[in-house]
């Protein structure tokens, strides 16, 4: 059975393993995952999607206190062998639900300009580009900033 649940400290080795296989740069390390999971300020959420509660399929990290009106999807990834099966969609919908529950209007995110697969995925799910930021990533790449309005005041 596939479930979405909060990440725990026991997930960290699997999260780091997934991160190393999915991203070339700007990887989240074990220490950062530990901070997100401990979430002492209550503003960052690390959520995983897992099979039978153990096999990690993917995760997202969400900053709840990004701005007054928006949250920020800091990272989202699905393990290579599980991509294209709807798990990214399930994770993104869950992050959108958390955003709405926090009373925020927008979910914002950044995506590397070369990551056409993720850009197409976000566009398909209603995200639109609102800005670009030069040199955003460790390798100097440009970030496309995208957002989606989740409800209208
Ligand atoms: C981007 C990512 C999270 C998408 O997750 P996924 O599980 O592969 O995507 P899903 O299977 O949930 O796809 C959801 C929808 O998006 C569509 N989609 C997925 N990949 C797509 C692509 N390359 N082009 C167009 N549409 C795409 C799917 O067709 C699906 O729509 P459908 O249900 O109508 O068929 C995943 O590919 C990933 O982890 N990539 C590597 C890490 C990464 O780039 N993260 C984003 C950093 S900003």
Question: What is the topological layout?
Answer:
Blueprint: E1 2-6, H1 12-22, H2 30-38, E2 44-51, E3 55-63, E4 70-78, H3 87-101, E5 106-112, H4 116-124, E6 128-133, E7 143-149
Parallel strand pairs: 4-5
Antiparallel strand pairs: 1-2, 2-3, 3-4, 5-7, 6-7
The structure holds coenzyme A.
The site of coenzyme A has 18 residues, from strand 4, helix 3 and helix 4.
How would you explain this protein's 3D organization?
- The chain is of the alpha+beta class and 153 residues long.
- It has one domain (2-109): Aminopeptidase (3-Layer(aba) Sandwich), CATH 3.40.630.
- 29% of the residues lie in helices and 33% in strands.
- The protein has 4 helices and 7 strands; from the N terminus they run βααβββαβαββ.
- It has helices at residues 12-22, 30-38, 87-101, 116-124, and strands at residues 2-6, 44-51, 55-63, 70-78, 106-112, 128-133, 143-149.
- It has a 7-stranded mixed sheet with strand order 1-2-3-4-5-7-6, sandwiched between helices.
- Strand 4 (70-78), helix 3 (87-101) and strand 5 (106-112) form a beta-alpha-beta unit.
- It is globular and about 35 Å long.
- The mean pLDDT is 95.
- The chain binds coenzyme A.
- Coenzyme A is lined by residues 22, 76-78, 83-89, 111, 115, 117-118, 120-121, 124.
Q: Outline of this structure?
A:
The chain is α+β, with helices and mostly antiparallel strands and 153 residues long.
Question: Order of SSEs, N→C?
Answer: EHHEEEHEHEE
Question: What form results from the Cα inertia axes?
Answer: globular
Structural class, judged by helices and strands?
A: alpha+beta
Bound molecules: coenzyme A
Whole-number radius of gyration? 15 Å
Sketch the major β-sheet: 7 strands, mixed
Poorly predicted regions are: none
Compute the number of helices: 4
Rounded average pLDDT: 95
- What helical percentage do the residues reach? 25-40%
The CATH H-level superfamily is: Gcn5-related N-acetyltransferase (GNAT)
**Through-space gap between termini:** 37 Å
CATH fold assignment: Aminopeptidase
Overall number of strands? 7
């Amino acid at each position: 059975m596939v479930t979405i649940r909060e990440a725990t400290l026991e997930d960290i080795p699997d999260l780091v393993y997934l991160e190393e296989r999915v991203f070339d740069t700007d990887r989240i390390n074990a220490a950062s995952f530990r901070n997100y999971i401990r979430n002492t300020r209550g503003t960052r959420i690390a959520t995983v999607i897992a099979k039978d509660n153990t096999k990690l399929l993917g995760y997202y990290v969400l900053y709840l206190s990004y701005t007054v009106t928006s949250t920020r999807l800091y990272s989202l990834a699905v393990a290579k062998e599980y991509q294209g099966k709807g798990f990214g969609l399930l994770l993104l919908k869950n992050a959108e639900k958390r955003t709405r529950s926090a009373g925020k209007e927008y979910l914002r995110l950044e995506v590397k300009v070369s990551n056409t697969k993720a850009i197409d995925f976000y566009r398909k799910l209603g995200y639109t580009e609102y800005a670009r930021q030069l040199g955003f990533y460790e390798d100097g790449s440009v970030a496309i900033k995208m957002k989606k309005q989740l409800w209208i005041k």
